[in-house]
Amino acid sequence: MNLLFKWEWLPDLGKGLTLTVELTAACISIGAVLGFLLAVARIYTRGPLYWLASAYVQFFRGTPLLVQLFMVHFGLAGLGLRLTPLLSGIIAMGLNTAAYQAEYFRGAIQAVKRGQTLAALSLGMTRWQAILYVVLPQALRLVLPAWSNELVYMLKYTSIVYLIGLPDLTGVGRTIASRNFRFFEVYAVVALIYLALVLLVTMALRGLERRIRVPGLGTAR
Amino acid sequence: MALLVVEDLHKRYGREEVLRGISLELEKGETKVIIGPSGTGKSTLLRCINRLTEPDRGRIWLDGVEVTSPRTNIYRIRSQIGFVFQDFNLFTHLTALDNVALGLIRVKRVPKREARERALRELERVGLADKADAYPAQLSGGQQQRVSIARALAMDPKLILFDEPTSALDPELIGEVLEVMIELAEGGMTMLVVTHEMGFARAVADEIIFMEHGVIVEQGPPEVLFTNPRVPRTAEFLRKITEFYGKSG
Which residues of A touch B (CB under 8 A)? Predict the structure, then answer.
């Protein structure tokens, strides 16, 4: 067996990597905003808003991501709404990670002691101010470890978008490999790039965790 | 009209009637101490006064404004009533200084610099200027409670409610908190204090209110209640509590 590696693969893989990073960034951001709102709805509201948010989370956590992606891309197209692969990918995976992030946020918000909110309210803050200035800064510190995992998952899960024709890192790798039949070598390079990316992101987030650490909160004790 | 008027306050949790018609008044500059066995609605009463808990029935006025009216801006009222909690409830993610400054900045819209200067003065007042940069977890219970008093003071409250402020403290840390409270009372702050510290009650209370089972059993100046209570149950409770907590102070 002789292994082959060609530098000429790299420019294309670089483009794929860029798409993977952009896709992840877009999805994780959408998911963070939506996830936070879902968590707030599930904790602080009752009635229709609560049920809607809960049903949302159950649906997206209870069905495969791939099925969700196909529903958005092919399903909506079948109904006459044709989205570009990029938009489909961002929407499907953004909505999906929102459900998971909602659960992480919910856990973190509920881990902030009730007395913190009471103290904020007793100063004359509104409920929103109490959430914004007292609960959220603590919840974000508590959620960071779980949230880091979600980001790392997302980096890897975005690889499924090649199935709707997007040239992300995995998609580009597949194209190169199917041209030269060097499946093992090409996918090994792709895997190493993912690994490097994940390690980089993990280290960056650890650094962030250390920087915003406060005595008495979460793992910071 | 007195600074604080509470009239026929009722509160029920499920089947249990926690407050069964509480009425009391507090003049400006007065300190009143509420005593009574645990579970008799003392904390609930305090929380009803700034509507952290909504009372079922009854009315409350602060400085002529009806707290219980639906038209009243409750956030404004709360910013005028300091609240000191049994377990301090300092904001975990903020330094002592920022704990004191937060209400000024977010509620009173004081510019940050000015708020911090004011916060530092309040920390000085409770003897903790040197701990301005410490986080709550780095402070002793007594220090945390003093910061929480500074946090209440910074808002220039018309009234401060104390909910068993020393009950969560190690015995040797109680003194430093009581000292601050005595200073406040003597300085003319209006205070309503739930506590078992009879020494404190004797030293500064204008009146002691004995509560049990959601009603006020008896109220009067400490010298009367301690030496010559009208109701036998008051005498019994005071005897037990002074035996347990000691007469000193």
Answer: 113, 115-116, 118-126, 129, 133-134, 137-138, 141, 214-217, 221
* CATH level 3 topology of A3-212: MetI-like fold (1.10.3720)
ipTM higher than the 0.85 cut: yes
Distance (Å, whole) CA B16 – CA B3: 30
The letter for the amino acid at B166 is: T
Phi, psi of B216 (to 5 degrees): -85, 115
Length of chain B, please? 249
pLDDT digits (tens, 9 = 90+) for A16-34: 999 999 999 999 999 999 9
Task: Give bridge partners of residue B215 from the DSSP assignment.
Answer: B212
Task: Measure in Å the smallest separation between the Cα of A82 and chain B Cα atoms.
Answer: 47
pTM, entire model: 0.86
Name the token pair of B143. Answer: 């220090």
Cα B98 to Cα B223: distance, rounded to the nearest angstrom: 41
CA pair distance B221, B208, nearest whole angstrom: 6
Q: What does the DSSP 8-state code read for residue A35?
A: H
| φ, ψ at B212 (rounded to 5°) | -155, 140
Query: Rounded distance, CA A80 to CA B186, Å?
Result: 77
- The shortest CB-CB distance from A216 to any of B106, B135, B151 is to B135
Q: Each residue of B146-205: pLDDT tens digit? A: 999 999 999 999 999 999 999 999 999 999 999 999 999 999 999 999 999 999 999 999
